[in-house]
Amino acid sequence: MKEQRKELPVRLEAGEICFQGHNWGEMNVARVRFPKGADATPLLEGLPENLCQCPHWGTVLKGSITVSYADGTEETVNAGEVYYWPPGHTIRINEEYEAVEFSPRDQMEELMGHLESKLSG
């Protein structure tokens, strides 16, 4: 019989950065908020290639975000648009940002653990 995993809320807050999520089965759904000018690059140091290795699918509710990939390409996603970001990315916030995002649970848990250690250290 497969072991049941507890479905616990996931929350990380540091200043104006906020992840409010919930694990549903093998997925995590989160409301994500960043202030204008935030840059995730320093928070990702220590991960492979110093980039986020968790894929994300989502929709931007407010603001604008620029995503940079390992190959040097960039894209900007604005309020009202949907996105998919594969592993190997970092973000910069152009305008106060809010999104609803879906990610694989295990990879998101690893990412959140890394972010918590960076933000508390």
Briefly note the CATH topology name: Jelly Rolls
Task: Report strand %.
Answer: over 45%
The whole-angstrom Rg is 14 Å
Instruction: Output the CATH class name.
Output: Mainly Beta
Overall 3D geometry?
A: globular
Question: Treating each run of at least 4 consecutive H or I residues as one helix, how many helices?
Answer: 2
Low-confidence stretches: 1-6
How many domains make up the 3D coordinates?
A: 1
The profile of the biggest β sheet is:
7 strands, antiparallel
Strand element count: 7
Instruction: Specify the CATH architecture.
Output: Sandwich
Oligomer: single chain
Secondary-structure element order, N to C: EEEHEEEEH
Mean model confidence by pLDDT:
90
Q: Mind telling me the CATH superfamily name?
A: Jelly Rolls
Structural class estimated from helices and strands: alpha+beta
Distance between the termini: 40 Å
Question: How much helix, percentage-wise, in residues?
Answer: 10-25%
Structure overview:
This protein has helices at residues 41-44, 105-120; strands at residues 9-14, 17-24, 27-34, 56-69, 74-78, 82-85, 89-104. It has a single domain, classed as Jelly Rolls, CATH 2.60.120.10. Strands 1, 2, 3, 4, 5, 6 and 7 form a seven-stranded antiparallel beta sheet that branches. Strand 1 and strand 2 form a beta hairpin. The chain contains two helices and seven strands, in the order E-E-E-H-E-E-E-E-H. The chain is an alpha+beta fold.
